[in-house]
Amino acid sequence: MTMVNLEVFQFPSNNLNKQLANVAMNYVNEAIMITNKHNQIMYVNNKFEQITGYTFREVRGKTPKTLQSGIQGLSFYEKMKRIVKNTGKWQGEIWNRTKNGEIYLQSLSIIAVKNTFDQIEHFIGIFSDLFHNKSIENEYLHQTHYFDRLTTLPNRALFEKRVVSSLKLSEQTNENFAIIFFQLDNFTSVNEKYGYIYGDILLKRIALRLNSHLPEHSMVTRWNGTEFTSIIESISNEEEVIHHINQLQRQISTPVLVNGIEVCLQANFGICMYRKDGKTVSDLLSKANTALEIARREKKPYLFYHPKMGKPNNFFIMELELKKAIKEEQFELYYQPLISVSSSKLVGFEALIRWNHPTEGLISPVKFIPLAEQTGLIQDIGNIVFKKACMQLRKWKDKGFNNINISVNISMNQFRNQLLVENIREILQETNVNPYDIGIELTESSLIDNMEETTLKLHELKNLGLSIAIDDFGTGYSSLGYLIDFPIQRIKIDRTFTKVIGKNEKIKAIVSAINTMAETMDIEVVAEGIETEEQFYLMQKLNCNVVQGFLFDKPLPIEEVERKWLIFRE
Hints:
24% strand, alpha/beta, five-stranded antiparallel sheet, 21 helices
């Protein structure tokens, strides 16, 4: 690659210094871009051209906005500008787009260069492509989850970012693009016949073929299992999309030889066209997925989405919306009072999540938590809930509302996360709350997998200062054993027991036995779902310690909690 002309940027005056600067800047392993005070590009080095695909001639006089992917919003860049202006520098990660449409994650440092009057004259940007930096590739990519470990293709997280970028670009250029879902339709029989190791090698070979024969402005992704996605930009008609599909089908159907065994595969394709079929990420992806499902059902090679296919998969749409909700933290915590049986006074709250959807309003956890569990999004949601609860507790303490405890539910998949204890420790330190004022609630099903690992993790949580409660007690397989093996301070009697306790003598006997045993072991008993005076009276008679339910109050937003339960308490 030829050296970039440095005449436009004022290096030291003599030619030797200019030559040295030229050599140095063109042989470093990071891209360098220099702009004037108006943010117009004055210089780029060779590495810039390698990473972005743009030559100096193509970007000279333009602003770095040319490189933007559209993934990060205006507020991101405004904040960046403020920091550079106030501190003279900025460092972070940014999503940019190459000339041929590839999305990549960039590690960027910006330095403001000032004159003798302390006025900014130039900006220097130094960046590297994190995705293709071979020195950190394996460790970094696996940590960030943007590439599939088996095939090394981009995964669904990166694909969704690419679709966002394509939407932004299409708004500017008025060009169309297509989203394609496709699935290998006879792969299960291959696994059954030749084994999973053979199947994995076969997938790798197919992925390599697909990635090696992509036209410009397109991308192929392993979505999950044997399902893939592709995007093709700058298209003018369906014939161009069909041509692209035929290319993909050719790479898939060409026989593959693995360990002396030759296999032929086929695939079905579902297509959705931007503008004609939808204008949002969730709409486009869900409709392409719907077209694929019908193509498979009808055994068609490919189908374009049509309104007659019916409504897209709501599950699929909700998953995408849930990811957006996590990013924007569209969640609120409601708090249900916990009441002492002996004094009838408030002793704490249970924090319960609600999804404050921008158009649907408040969504019950019953509708989205199962999906979050299934997709793994529960990890992020769980961290948000725990942090919000700690932050609220801190605010209440600062207002003078003392002796308040908050209980937070930990899901089964969240509990199994190896980073759970570390995540909780960091949040406790960040929010500066007393861990003895925070409790966690686990269902019995969370604890049955690995007794040794579970016991160790529970002791680690207890050592942080947290109290540990077993929720829905009595519905599991070995409830009594938990009281002996695990460091538990509280058990919550399942609401199904509470509901029939006045009508079923056996249930009453079980609850009485639980209370007697818990009292002996210095474990507090909470009765859930108290809705009538009779149920409360029976729980008093059976020596329960704490109750909660609609008889006392429903889960409330923060303002109502303070007005009804805290303002007159101190």
